[in-house]
Amino acid sequence: MDFGLTGKWALVCAASKGLGKGCASALVREGVNVVITARGAAALRATATELRAMVPAGLQVEVRAVAGDITTAEGQAAALAACPQIDILVNNAGGPPPGDFRDWDRDTWIKALDANMLTPIALIKATVDAMAARGYGRVINITSGAVKAPIGALGLSNGARSGLTGFVAGLARSAIAARGVTINGLLPGAFDTERLRTTLRAGAQQAGQDPDATWRAREQAIPARRFGTADEFGAVCAFLCSVQAGYLTGQNILLDGGAYPGTY
Ligand code: NAD
User: Fold this and answer.
1) What pLDDT score was predicted for residue 126?
2) According to the model, what pLDDT value does residue 226 have?
3) Which of 99, 123, 151, 231 matches a 20 to 30 Å C-alpha distance to 86?
4) Beta 88-91 vs 63-67: how paired, if at all?
5) Among residues 106, 116, 107, 109, which one has the least CA distance to residue 144?
6) Given ligand 1 and candidates 69, 141, 164, 193, which is best to mutate, with the most ligand atoms within 8 Å of its CB?
């Protein structure tokens, strides 16, 4: 299927690794020019090189890498300035740490809200009206399965991501909906990325358990009996950006191998 994306420009935040990289890869394969960001310049450069090697033969695709923290005003300005126009915005950043809410002060909350709620909203604000004026736009917010089923230790994530989800539920249904702009959330369950490996291993070590056995047990607890891959995640992102998905907006799409136990 031709997704009709050739020649579009995408800003994919936090994309040197993991799910962001999966989204950037899928978009490049569809002929989309991408600006990718991450804090570490070396890993970002390496990813940009990998992405350039994925460009389908015969297509002209630009890959630009902008190192910086997307949760800061400077990081956002640099990312926006690198993109001649933004047709597709993929919001992503690192997730907040686990913990007990009794230990979190105002600064801890503000940091989580900045990364996982206010930064996506700032980037949407900077781009969405121009998308509407051109008659096409796609905003994909990478959030978490925790939006549908909260995870006890991840209160900061549950709170900040639910705030973003509530805000965009209203925005997606505003006047931009009639002007070709869709906004959707992509909710990862457990995906085999560096973050999952680090957090699962650290948790197992803390509990005095074997990290490999913990990894396998966690996989077995998912109906699909495996973790998702960044490529699978990216493919769904590319579909949401497609012209065919123009009537799909204001939704939260869970990608979790069946882990969420509810019917709705
Ligand atoms: P990852 O650690 O594998 O990759 C994160 C990427 O984001 C890296 O490229 C890193 O450099 C970049 N990054 C992090 N903070 C940044 C910042 N402030 N500015 C710019 N770049 C930044 O993580 P992942 O597994 O791909 O997760 C992506 C998001 O999805 C996170 O918010 C995570 O909490 C969420 N999530 C992941 C899973 C999972 O199973 N992997 C599950 C639920 C939610």
Assistant:
1) 98
2) 98
3) 231
4) unpaired
5) 116
6) 193
Please check whether residue 250 is in contact with residue 216, taking contact to mean a CB–CB distance below 8 angstroms: no
Q: What distance in angstroms lies between residue 152's CA and the mean position of ligand 1's atoms?
A: 19
pLDDT of residue 109: 98
The maximal CA–CA distance of the chain, rounded, in angstroms, is: 57
Best residue for ligand 1 mutational test, from 92, 215, 252 (most atoms within 8 Å of Cβ):
92
Mark the ranges of the chain whose per-residue pLDDT is less than 50: none
Cα separation, 123 vs 37, in Å, equals: 13
> Residues near ligand 1 with C-beta < 6 Å?
14-20, 37-40, 69-71, 92-95, 115, 142, 144-145, 188, 190-191, 193-196
Q: Over the stretch 169-189, which tens digit does the pLDDT of each residue have?
A: 999 999 999 999 999 999 999
